[in-house]
Amino acid sequence: MLNYDHIMIHFGELSTKGKNKKNFIRMLAKNVRHALKDTANLTYIVTNDHIYIRLNDNDSEPILNRLQDVSGIQSLSLVLKTNAEFENLKNSCLELMKNETGDTFKVRTKRADKSYPFISDTINREIGAYILKNAKWKVDVHNPDITLSIDIRRDAAYVYAKTVLGAGGYPLGVGGKILSMVSGGIDSPVACYLLMKRGITIQAIHFASPPYTSGLVIDKIKDLCRVLNHYQPEIKLYIVPFTKLQEAIYKNCDESYAITIMRRMMYRISEGIARRHRCLALANGESIGQVASQTLNSIQVINEVVRLPVIRPLAVFDKSEIIKIARKIGTFEISIRPFEDCCTIFAPKSPKTMPHHDKVEIMEASFDYASLVNECIKETTSILISEKTDLEKYL
Q1: In the 8-state DSSP scheme, what is residue 112?
Q2: In this structure, what is the dihedral angle of CA atoms 49, 50, 54, 59, given to the nearest 10 degrees?
Q3: What Å distances lie between residue 78 and 64, 83, 113, 237, CA to CA?
Q4: Is residue 52 within 8 Å of 45, Cβ to Cβ?
Q5: Which residue from 206, 204, 196 is spatially nearest to 232, judged by alpha carbons?
Q6: 35-90: pLDDT as tens digits
Q7: Which domains does the chain have, with CATH numbers?
């Protein structure tokens, strides 16, 4: 009885990249090899249409499970690579169908090798009839239990009936680098994950306000980064000492404007660090209207202090959608640990949801915030967090 001996990786969106397609495929192949680095004795074949992984007797299930989290993969199929000679192909398809469960099937052929002597429709009919004659299956072209797919290529035929969805998006690393604000709540790690899915490499920044915030918040952030290491092997985390600047804000500014001004300071600091490290944009976990600082009016007033683009992957997500993704990627239980960040600790009772630009500027002019911002940037420390805990380094 024949068994599947390869995994075929389908590209999806990469097929639209034109002249850049080769670079995208090259990056995806590198990421796939890295994801499977702990699996020995695999053989990789990279083509312009698919990546094939020869299993060489490895169990396919853990490999498929790992690859489903690699961005840039549209879907994955367990395939049998076989000689395309027609009689051999018919027998191979029949043997594979004996491994499958169900009652109904259909055959679908893609003939990439146009020199093959039979057209796709003929292959579908002939192989379908052969299976009907020799096995207990019925044809259902509209809603079959099994779709037997055949991909005819110059080197061989690839036959498969098992396909699972991948993460989609683009390969990590093709979309540039972003500095993403990470608070430790539910939203920001999800925003990081969605950015990674689009091929963007993230660096993270967190604002710490000891002694008002616990050192356990930093442990929480590092644990979140380690979960995200599943999707990006190394994440640089910047820790900003924010206490002195935050105290100055609450000393010199109206309490109702404190969050707005605090966020403006965070944006200024983040832009300074992002430019130093050649990040192309800032990002955060803001969702429109979720809290006072995330109304459109607040976002406009806060955003005006920076020139870098600010990407908000969760802008139109509601909380239940965000929580669903957080549970899926494994960050939810860490995010709900009861250790508050500086935004939560200093949250005013009645924050402005429609702050006025002029009032904000008057309050900021009442103290030397620029020196404090520069001090925060100068005293920021960084940690490189890797897939392996023992590779965590202070830089």
Answers
A1: -
A2: -160
A3: 9, 17, 21, 38
A4: yes
A5: 196
A6: 999 999 999 999 999 999 999 999 999 999 999 999 999 999 999 999 999 999 99
A7: 6-165 (3.30.2130.30), 177-394 (3.40.50.620)
CB atoms within 10 A of CB 67: 21
Report the C-alpha gap between 6 and 29 in whole angstroms.
15
Strand order in the sheet with 393-394: 310-311, 281-283, 177-181, 201-208, 234-241, 381-386, 393-394
- How much of the chain, in percent, has pLDDT values that exceed 90? 83
Residue with tokens 């500095």: 179
The closest of 249, 246, 247, 267 to 257, measured between CA atoms, is 249
Question: In a 3-state reduction of DSSP, which class is residue 157?
Answer: strand
- CA nearest 290: which of 216, 379, 186? 186
Q: Kindly report whether the peptide bond that precedes residue 351 is cis, defined as omega within 30 degrees of 0.
A: no
